[in-house]
Design a protein that fits this description.
With 72 residues, the protein is mostly helical. The chain is built from 4 helices and no strands. Helix 1 packs antiparallel against helix 2 and helix 2 packs across helix 4. The longest helix has 12 residues. The mean pLDDT is 92.
Length: 72
């Protein structure tokens, strides 16, 4: 049995992502999402709501959601 992999992105990177999300700066938060795809930190509830994700989603979930939307 293997342990779940836990990865934490830097606080400044997470803050930049949230700021870009608040500013609706799609280009910036999409570019930052590439660096958050394995971050297991919980996303703030407000950001979950903005992205239409369940409460307590991780930055990794948000990153994958943003990147999938960008590829459409």
């Amino acid at each position: 049995m293997s342990a779940a992999r836990i990865s934490h992105a830097s606080g400044s990177l997470r803050d930049q992502f949230l700021s870009a999300l608040d500013a609706e700066d799609h280009a910036t938060y999409t570019a930052l999402a590439v660096h958050l795809t394995s971050c297991t930190n919980p996303l703030p509830t407000m950001a979950c709501d903005q992205l239409g994700l369940p409460t307590r989603s991780t930055y990794a979930s948000a990153a994958h959601h943003v990147l999938a939307a960008a590829s459409v």
